[in-house]
């Protein structure tokens, strides 16, 4: 599908971004392992989270929905999963595959998990390595680095492990595996990644403690079911935050957005670039801070971003590059080599596609150097099957001169199924055309 976008004369209105992707995945998985009925409202019905639901169903979990954003998971406890009759399909979702590998490692049965072409290229050794050290037998291409992966789990031993790179997926996989051991698993990160798993596992009654960059979990404690109201995804809101800053006549409010400090790097960086963002704190939901964000047109300037900030905005870097492309002066994004192993090689693809629109962006081994220009020009660009690249390019199209056509835009449904409808509600002239 092609998304055809005309830059609108103004960009005004309110948007409720879809439910947070990371929290939706975790709510389903933790709900499946709890004893009783977990009710999830605001569940993200994007393809990635649907992959998690389907894998859990194949493992014997009774799940209803999503129905109007509601998912009901009837969990049977830590020992309730069944050997799947077929290959588990994680689709495009790294979170599904990595978190479920942690669960599968604890199961006394055989399972196989696979994904789409993009996911089959992504590194899994970072999860399969430590899970093997806990005692799981795992097979896969390149000695367990690449999916499809098969797992024969059970009889796990606790592990003390320090992650070489901050990763919430790896941390979460090991914490989930830790639930199936009868000792204490300790996971230490080099810098803090998103902590939704820790918050939700604690809320469900897991014996889990956070001490600085170290998380300790004692296994075998039964989990209680939860009632979860998923806040809006700041990674989805980020597209509109950037478009709002860059558009000369903009006033947007993003409502009920997750404001977990491990996720709000994009707010901090845009503010440091001079963006007029206003945060209106709201009610806490799902054990997570939430609130609204108001954005109006601003003049941005470039800066340097790296270090511990990177995990706090890793998924927002494609759209941050769009902001930097139109900021005054130079932006340097470093320490972000992880971008190469996301849904696409985001360093090469973001640089290549934004350059087609006239951006002065240069790929570096661990990020980008971007020199701000005064205008971008509309162009035919490609998503390379990467949902966040597709939406970042659409935002560039909102502030470019002339028409922008984003090819391969169907992947947007992976994380933001209502994206085109939300753009149209803001009065943007946007069309979806079949290839
Ligand atoms: C996620 C963690 C991040 C992020 C991904 C979602 C999660 O990946 O990029 O989109 O839900 O835990 P890493 O753990 O690989 O950094």
TrEMBL record:
Biological process per Gene Ontology, one example term: aromatic amino acid family biosynthetic process
Pathway annotation: Metabolic intermediate biosynthesis; chorismate biosynthesis; chorismate from D-erythrose 4-phosphate and phosphoenolpyruvate: step 6/7
Keyword Cytoplasm: yes
Location in the cell: Cytoplasm
Catalytic activity: 3-phosphoshikimate + phosphoenolpyruvate = 5-O-(1-carboxyvinyl)-3-phosphoshikimate + phosphate
Broad class of the protein's primary localization: cytoplasm
Functional description taken from the UniProt entry: Catalyzes the transfer of the enolpyruvyl moiety of phosphoenolpyruvate (PEP) to the 5-hydroxyl of shikimate-3-phosphate (S3P) to produce enolpyruvyl shikimate-3-phosphate and inorganic phosphate.
Subunit structure: Monomer.
Protein family according to the UniProt entry: Belongs to the EPSP synthase family.
Full protein name: 3-phosphoshikimate 1-carboxyvinyltransferase
Organism encoding this protein: Neomoorella thermoacetica
């Amino acid at each position: 599908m092609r998304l055809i976008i005309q830059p609108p004369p103004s960009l005004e209105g309110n948007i409720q971004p879809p439910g947070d992707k990371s929290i939706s995945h975790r709510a389903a998985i933790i709900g499946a392992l709890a004893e009783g009925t977990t009710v999830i409202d605001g569940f993200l019905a994007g393809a990635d989270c649907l992959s998690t639901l389907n894998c859990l169903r194949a493992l014997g979990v009774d799940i209803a929905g999503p129905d109007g954003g509601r998912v009901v998971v009837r969990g049977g406890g830590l020992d309730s999963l069944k050997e799947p009759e077929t290959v588990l399909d994680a689709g495009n979702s790294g979170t599904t595959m990595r978190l479920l590998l942690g669960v599968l490692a604890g199961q006394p049965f055989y399972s196989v998990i696979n994904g789409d072409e993009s996911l089959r290229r992504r590194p899994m050794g970072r999860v399969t390595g430590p899970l093997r050290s806990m005692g799981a037998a795992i097979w896969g291409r390149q000695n367990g680095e690449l999916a499809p992966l098969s797992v024969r789990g059970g009889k796990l031993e606790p592990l003390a492990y320090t992650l070489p790179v901050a990763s919430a997926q790896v941390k979460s996989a090991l914490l989930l595996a830790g639930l199936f051991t009868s000792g204490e698993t300790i996971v230490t990160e080099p810098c803090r990644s998103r902590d939704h798993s820790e918050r939700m596992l604690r809320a469900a009654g897991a014996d889990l403690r956070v001490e600085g960059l170290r998380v300790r979990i004692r296994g075998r404690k039964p989990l209680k079911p939860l009632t979860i109201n998923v806040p809006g995804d700041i990674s989805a809101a980020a597209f509109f935050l950037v478009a709002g800053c860059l558009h000369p006549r903009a006033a947007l409010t993003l409502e009920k957005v997750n404001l977990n400090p491990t996720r709000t790097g994009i707010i901090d960086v845009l503010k440091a670039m001079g963006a007029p963002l206003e945060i209106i704190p709201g009610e806490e939901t799902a054990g997570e801070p939430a609130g609204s964000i108001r954005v109006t047109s601003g003049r941005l300037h470039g800066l340097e971003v790296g270090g511990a900030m990177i995990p706090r905005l890793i998924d927002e870097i494609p759209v941050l590059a769009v902001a930097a492309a139109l900021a005054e002066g130079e932006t340097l994004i470093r320490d972000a080599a992880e971008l190469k192993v996301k849904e696409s090689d985001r360093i090469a693809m973001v640089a290549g596609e934004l350059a087609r629109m006239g951006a002065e962006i240069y790929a570096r081994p661990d990020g980008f150097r971007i020199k701000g220009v005064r205008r971008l020009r509309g162009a035919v660009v490609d998503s390379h099957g990467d949902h966040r690249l597709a939406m970042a390019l659409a935002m560039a199209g909102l502030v470019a001169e002339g028409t922008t056509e984003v090819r391969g835009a169907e992947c947007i449904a992976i994380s933001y199924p209502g994206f085109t409808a939300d753009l149209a509600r803001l009065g943007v002239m946007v069309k979806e055309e079949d290839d």
